[in-house]
Structure formats: C-alpha cells, structure tokens
Amino acid sequence: MSRVAAIDCGTNSIRLLVSDVPDAGPAVDVLRRMEVVRLGEGVDATGRLAPQAIERTRRVLAEYADQARELGAEAVRMVATSATRDAANRADFETMVVDTLGLPPDVVSGREEAELSFRGATASLDAAAAAHGAPPPRPPFLVVDIGGGSTELVLGDADGVRAARSVDIGCVRLTERQLHGDPPTPEEVERAEADIRKGLAEVTAEVPVGEAATLVGLAGSVTTVAALALELPAYDPVAIHGSRIPAAAVAAVTADLLRARRSRRAAMAVMHPGRVDVIGAGALVLHVIVQDLGFADVVVSEHDILDGIALGLAGR
Q1: CA neighbours closer than 13 Å in the CB half-sphere of residue 130
Q2: Contacts of 310 (CB under 8 A, 6+ apart)
Q3: CB atoms within 10 A of CB 87
Q4: Around Cβ 95, how many Cβ atoms within 10 Å?
C-alpha cells in the first residue's frame, strides 16, 4: 500500500488527491479538494499568466503542500496543463511552485494529459456500474475531458490508449472568446459552437472516434451537467460516478444553462461557485461532442487525471 498525493493545476481549478493505492484493487481516497483559482484568466488573449492568478494559485498550493505532508504522503506529483503550457511567462509559475511545494511542476503535453485522464477515468468504471445496478460499459472507450483551457479526447481500452488529441476548446477559453452576454446571445452561442466544431474536426482527423462503443465524460463541466440532469438536491459524487446521461438530457441541460442569467445559475444547488461563469461553455462542448459524434448517452466519471497521477505514483 502506498500513500501518494496528486495535484492537478488546470486553467480553472487546482485540485488535490491524497490516496492509498494498494498493489492491486481499487484505491481509497484519503482527501480530495478542489479550489477554483482561474490560473488561466486572460491567458488566451495575452499569452501570459496574470500575477494575481499566480498568487491565487500559490495560496491554495501552500495549503495542499501542508495537507499532503500532514497526511504522510510518501510521494507527490503536481501536473500543470493547458494554461501553463501556453504561457510566455511559464517560468514565473514554475519558480512559484518550487518555492511553495518544494518540487517543480510537470507541465505535461496534451497527449500525456489525455493518457493520465484515460487511466484515471476508466479504472473504476465496472465497479461504478455495478453500484448503479447496471452492466459494465463496453470498450473501446472514448474519454472526453473538458477542462478550462483545453479538451482532450482519448480512445482506448484495457490495453491502453489507441489515439488521443488535445484541442483548445476549454470552458474558460470559450467563455472569454465568445460567451459575453448574460445570458449569451444566440449569435455568441453559434460562434462558440463553430469553435467547438473546428476543434472537433481536428480530433476526428487523428482519432478514429467511430471505433468507440462508450463515451465517457469527466471533469467539472460534465459532472455538473450530470448532477443537473439527475435533478440532485445537492452535489453527490457517489450518485454521479458511473451514471448514464442520455443525449436528450445533455441537450436540455445545456439549453437551460445557456438561457439562464448568472444569478439563476449561481442559485442552482449543485453549482460550484467557481463554475457559474463558465458552465454554459463547458456544457456546450459536451453537447456538441455527444450530438455530432452520434452517441446515445454519456457515462460520467468522477475519477480523472488526479486518479491517473496517483496510480502512476504508486507504480500502477
């Protein structure tokens, strides 16, 4: 049994998982945390990480470092993704991480990000389906990880990843580019859809998505859409993990979010405060993928890149 700490620093949020990982069998969460720091605020327009965004991230990272140490993590890995990859002042961020955490971040490529997400998302799908009284989802899987700056689509099965592509159509990036109204105008939504379809065309040129038997969705935009589709009275990761959301429900939730003013989105019981401004874009990415690729539903995973990092730290 290994106790490890995984940190995922994305465009919108920074997350921590401290996990006990056995040599075989399911890992056990000791602690999961997520804080929205919006590291990628403005990076699409300026090409630089804003000093205030780096400082917001530093404050939370210092808390994570303390918690990992107090809980006795034997190994720690911090992965940084889209916003950091794209930033001209990436060195400023990396220096902050070394000063705060004591080790540098791994600024991973889109391909490695996709592989880590696939590994984490699919490791517990059979157990989740059994908990819902459903048959296990059929491979091959097409895993879609909708982040703040980018979206990764990964095709694979029990033997690993067959193909993957990362494209710059994350929920923060799309919101800053296109969805400015409260609520966004139909013209803004059309432009955002065009951006998504352009990115999706890049994916389908490289990834044989037609081979997939099951679409698996993960990350906060997807799990929030699932919580709304399931009409949960409060956010419940156990109810969400392994659930199947029909394409029609994804479409209905997306349409409602894009029609809603900010105040109504903020009042939704399952909505994390840090997702209020960007959930419309995230839902739209999911809806276009489900619709355009012709999937009847999406299987939702609460496990993702964090779990992939933790498994790798434990040598699995």
Answers
A1: 4
A2: 4, 5, 6, 17, 19, 21, 27, 120
A3: 23
A4: 12
- In order of start, what are the domains of the chain with their CATH numbers? 2-111 (3.30.420.40), 122-305 (3.30.420.150)
Q: How many CA atoms lie within 13 A of 5 on its CB side?
A: 23
Strands 160-167, 151-157: pairing is: antiparallel
End-to-end CA distance of the chain: 11
Per-residue model confidence as pLDDT tens digits over 268-283? 999 999 899 999 999 9
Q: What is the pLDDT of residues 175-209, one digit of tens each?
A: 999 999 999 999 999 999 999 999 999 999 999 99
Q: What is the pTM of this model?
A: 0.82
- Alpha helices by DSSP H, the chain: 43-46, 51-70, 82-86, 90-101, 110-122, 125-131, 171-177, 186-204, 220-229, 237-240, 247-259, 262-266, 279-293, 305-313
User: 168-180 burial by CB neighbour count: b if 16+ within 10 A, else e?
Assistant: bbbbbbbbbbbbe
The residue type of 98 is V
Q: Using DSSP, state whether 15 is helix, strand or coil.
A: strand
For residues 184 and 260, give the distance between their C-alpha atoms in angstroms, rounded to a whole number. Answer: 9
Task: Confirm if 207 and 163 have CB atoms less than 8 A apart.
Answer: yes
On whether the CB atoms of residues 216 and 301 are closer than 8 A, the answer is yes
Q: Cis (ω within 30 of 0) for the bond into 140?
A: yes
SS (H, E, C) 114-138: HHHHHHHHHCCHHHHHHHCCCCCCC
Q: What are phi and psi of 282, to 5 degrees?
A: -65, -45
Decide: 191 and 178 in contact? Cβ < 8 Å: yes
Tens of pLDDT, residue by residue over 56-102, are: 999 999 999 999 999 999 999 999 976 787 789 999 999 999 999 99
> To the nearest whole number, what is the mean pLDDT of the chain?
93
